[in-house]
Amino acid sequence: MEQQINEAIASIHKDVKEVKQLLMTLLKQDSSDKKNHENQNLMTAGEVARLLGVNLNVIYHKCAENDIPYSRIGKQYRFDKEAVLEWLKRQKPKEMISIDAIVENHLQKRRLLG
Fold first, then answer.
1. How far is CA 63 from the centre of its chain?
2. pTM of this prediction?
3. Domain containing 96 — which CATH number?
4. Residue 86: domain span
5. 72 FRET partner, CA 20 to 30 A, in 10, 17, 65, 106?
6. In the beta sheet, which residues pair with residue 79?
7. d(CA 88, CA 22)
8. What is the C-alpha to C-alpha distance for residues 74 and 110, in angstroms, rounded to an integer?
9. At residue 80, what are phi and psi to the nearest 5 degrees?
10. Residues in CB range of 52: below 8 A, 6 or more apart
């Protein structure tokens, strides 16, 4: 009788352990899903460049000029997709992104530095 009770307790203990593992797995998955959902609207500089159809260096230049909305996470640039699209809507067609203007601006800075 005592052995049956010990076996039943061991079985219950094993079942509880399995339930705990399943709950931990579900909690981790839920946490991961939330992070993925939060990051769905965040884009990298490369993704923004592809979205706008420009070279990656143009995006970095726009960041340096604080001309495009962005955030930095460490050394990485991140862009909220909605903010970028709103920024894009506010741009006048010829002000949008001009590689000539970027090159001219760069050359002027170099001339000033000598």
1. 16
2. 0.51
3. 1.10.10
4. 41-113
5. 106
6. 43
7. 46
8. 28
9. -80, 120
10. 58, 59, 88, 97
Q: Is 15 left (phi over 0), alpha (psi -120 to 50) or beta?
A: alpha
Tokens of 47: 């993704």
Q: Is residue 46 located within the same domain as residue 98? A: yes
Q: Write out 7-47 in H/E/C secondary structure.
A: HHHHHHHHHHHHHHHHHHHHHHHHHHHHHHHHHCCEECHHH
- Please report, as a single letter, which amino acid is at residue 54: V
Residue 34 pLDDT: 53
Give per-residue pLDDT as tens, 69-101. 999 988 899 999 999 999 988 887 655 556 777
For residues 25 and 56, membership in a common domain is answered with: no
- Phi then psi for residue 65, to 5 deg, are -90, 0
Residues 65 and 32 grouped into a single domain: no
What are the distances in angstroms from CA 6 to CA 2, 18, 20, 76?
Answer: 6, 18, 21, 57
